[in-house]
Amino acid sequence: MKKFAAYIIAALGFGIYGAVTDVDRDDSGAIVGQGSLDAFEVRLGDCFNDPDYEVDEFSNLPGVPCTEPHDNEAFAVFDLTLSSYPEYEIADISEASCVDRFEAYVGRDYESSSLDVVTMYPSQESWAESDREVVCAIYDMSGTKLVGTVKDRGI
Fold first, then answer.
1. Residue 2: pLDDT above 80?
2. Structural domain boundaries enclosing 119
3. Within a domain: 36
4. 20 to 30 Å CA-CA from 122: which of 39, 84, 110, 136?
5. Which string of DSSP letters, residue by residue, matches 28-74?
């Protein structure tokens, strides 16, 4: 069974920007210039690298154009419709929901793919602020960076 990695989105406002600027997007909304990608503004098809820091909660990601080497690609973005925060089950619920959406995006079933899923889901604190969004992203289990979109590639 594939091991799931989990990132938790935290409601930390704008987070740490430092000298990094926001990603540049074209008229269609695609990322065309590297920069800081607000975790609350990740869109379907956005590509990004892993954060440079080891934390469970974060609010920004290093966004990059999908044409450049990248660690992850968002393949689903949806809201949970639960009435209360499932503290001990949120990771499992989010991951299962992402796996259910995998084949429709990649064009290959999850179990036979060389790709794996990482989920970003609300923390208990952000849930209290009405955050219900789950972001599903794909990465290559071998650690090789992706180049181009994985949409409909069947890998």
1. no
2. 5-12+31-140
3. yes
4. 110
5. TS-EEE-EEEEGGG--TT-EEPPPSS--SEESEEEEE-TTS-BSEEE
